[in-house]
Design brief:
The complex is a heterodimer. Chain A is of the alpha/beta class. Chain A contains ten helices and ten strands. Chain A is 37% helix and 23% strand. In chain A, a hairpin with a 2-residue loop joins strand 4 and strand 5. In chain A, helix 3 crosses helix 4, helix 3 packs parallel to helix 5 and helix 4 crosses helix 5. Chain B contains eight helices and no strands. In chain B, helix 2 runs antiparallel to helix 3, helix 3 runs parallel beside helix 7 and helix 3 runs antiparallel to helix 8. Chain B is elongated. The termini of chain B are far apart. The chains are: A alpha/beta, B mainly alpha. The structure holds adenosine-5'-diphosphate and magnesium ion (MG). Adenosine-5'-diphosphate (ADP) binds next to helix 1 of chain A.
Chain lengths: 271, 257
């Protein structure tokens, strides 16, 4: 951790494919320390895949990913787990452990990695649950929670080990406006007060613009555009404008490749 | 022609690869087992009760009826040689050495095995295993090993319970219903069945416990992480376990004779 330059995560020349299709091809992306970075893009572009590559749940075919200057592909298992303790990750659907209560879910990392007394664990867990407004749900089981509540519990769990990097995969989907506002402010506050670096994946342009310091728009395996939300909004590129303003027509096809609509409906090519 | 050969070859390679991966997986579970047994015994005990309680009722009911059938069959066939008193011995050998371990393992696969496979498959499909990885907790020792060990430990007890309830069933049919002498029934059994017979039964149910738990955990862990994939994994668990148990049973019996 000697290298405290302002680049926390550097991705260079990344290539990754699923089957024959390259999801990323020669992708370069830099995440700066202490900032809130938004990663945007149409669904299916590989945003979740990118998060899994950054945390080495997946391994790239080509290219390097450096965290604090360390190439993560060189870490052994013990070093990898040590690195992961610096991360808190909020999965797209919460990923709460179904055989544990809400309280035990948040307590899970503490019980696995620390020797804190039960009293102390209780204190920490209830504080984190309070921060996401779900202290009252401590004894419920994950199955009893709505999608939005589960995501908030997962956020409490992601925060519980005081990580320096928090990763959010689609955190705003399915949240009501009130919880959305609370979460957005929480993300901002943690970032500023605790010096956390945040990476947020989202396709919610409006919401993300209010909170991100820097955004990357992914398309076709590369960064199509980057900059502050305002810069992106005014960008001249067709693709960026289409995405930022939610237009159906443009370089990003709304329709998956298909035969001609009229022909298929009229069954002309079906004999 | 060469196309068929080609396909055979590919299938063979695929099988060898899967089998190799399966063995490595088994080694991984074994490598973590001693440490988990010592430091996370609470997790293992929870799983022993989990898989034990899932299968207990069905095993008791089946044992009672299997024992009853042995009583009927034993009595009517042995009566031809005027040896109906030996029905207890007949049932005891059948239950302790064969039916106890085998039927228990098959019932275990259908009840506890499927539930293990689908639980683990769902944990995978809902990113719970990835979430553990991200919390720097290795899911192999934390999730898989306790479930594997739980099944291995539970199986001999379940088989013993099956055999005991089975003998009770034989007793009810032979003694209470067909009025075989109760003293002869139990005494002949006591004289004839010795510790080696019981050891054979225990050994078998231990091997079946390893096979059934290993297959369930493997299928769950390697399930395609979708609802359909998890469903397929549970079915495969039952089918593969049934075949494995019957093959192992034949091999062990052949070696012991
Ligand atoms: N386990 C998988 N197996 C095969 N293809 C996958 C798998 N996971 C994701 N993909 C494919 O990779 C692409 C990127 O997926 P993902 O990263 O989830 O996209 P996003 O999060 O941007 O919506 C998608 O086209 C998806 O079909
Ligand atoms: Mg995604």
């Amino acid at each position: 951790m000697a290298d405290l330059s302002e680049n926390l995560i550097e991705i260079r020349g990344l290539k990754y494919s699923r089957g024959p299709r390259a999801i990323f091809d020669d992708l370069d992306l830099t995440i700066k320390r202490g900032e809130i970075t938004a990663i945007m893009g149409p669904s299916g572009t590989g945003k979740t895949t990118l998060l899994r590559l950054i945390t080495r749940q997946l391994i790239p075919e080509l290219g390097t990913i450096r965290i604090d200057g360390v190439d993560i592909s060189r870490l052994n298992m013990a070093e990898l787990y040590q690195m992961r303790q610096r991360f808190g990750m909020l999965f797209q659907n919460g990923a709460l452990l179904t055989d544990l209560s809400v309280f035990e879910n948040v307590a899970f990392p503490l019980r696995e990695h620390t020797k804190l007394t039960n009293r102390l664990i209780r204190h920490v867990v209830l504080t984190k649950l309070h921060a996401v407004g779900l202290r009252g749900a401590a004894d419920m089981s994950p199955a009893e929670l709505s999608g939005g509540m589960a995501r908030r519990v997962a956020l409490a769990r992601a925060m519980v080990m005081d990580p320096d990097i928090l990763i959010y995969d689609e955190p705003f989907v399915g949240l009501d406006p009130i919880s959305m506002g609370v979460i957005v402010r929480l993300v901002r506050r943690m970032n500023d007060a605790l010096g956390i670096t945040s990476i947020i994946v989202s396709h919610d342009v409006e919401e993300i613009s209010t909170v991100a310091d820097r955004s990357f728009l992914l398309s076709h395996g590369k960064v199509a555009a980057s900059g502050s939300p305002d810069e992106l909004r005014d960008a001249p590129s067709e693709l960026v404008r289409q995405f930022m303003h939610g237009m159906a027509d443009g370089p990003v096809a709304f329709h998956f490749d298909a035969p001609g609509y009229e022909e298929q409906l009229l069954g002309r090519d079906s004999e | 022609m060469s196309k068929i050969l080609r396909e055979f070859y590919d299938t063979g390679v695929e099988f060898a690869r899967t089998f190799g991966a399966f063995q490595l997986f088994f080694m991984r579970l074994l490598r973590h087992s001693p440490r988990i047994l010592v430091s996370r015994l609470d997790l293992v005990i929870k799983q022993v009760f989990n898989s034990g309680s899932l299968s207990l009722v069905i095993i008791m009911v089946s044992g009672l009826f299997v024992g009853g059938v042995l009583g009927l069959q034993g009595y009517s066939n042995l009566a031809r040689f005027n040896a109906e008193d030996a029905v207890g011995v007949f049932a005891a050998f059948g239950l302790v050495k064969e039916l106890g371990p085998v039927i228990t393992a098959l019932l275990f696969a259908g009840r506890a095995g499927t539930s293990l496979a689908s639980e683990i498959g769902l944990m995978k499909a809902t990113d719970q295993l990835s979430a553990m990885e991200m919390m720097a907790v290795n899911p192999v020792p934390r999730v898989l090993v306790p479930r594997f060990l739980g099944g291995v430990i539970a199986m001999p007890f379940l088989a013993a319970i099956f055999s005991m309830i089975g003998l009770l069933g034989t007793h009810l049919v032979a003694v209470e219903l067909l009025s075989v002498d109760v003293g002869a029934f139990w005494q002949q059994m006591q004289i004839t069945v010795d510790i080696d017979d019981i050891n054979e039964g225990i050994f078998k149910s231990f091997v079946f416990g390893v096979a059934a738990s290993l297959i369930a955990v493997w299928e769950g862990y390697n399930a395609i992480p979708t609802a359909e994939g998890v469903g397929r994994a549970t079915t495969r668990t039952v089918v593969i376990t049934a075949i494995a148990v019957l093959v192992f049973d034949f091999m062990i019996t052949a070696l012991m004779i």
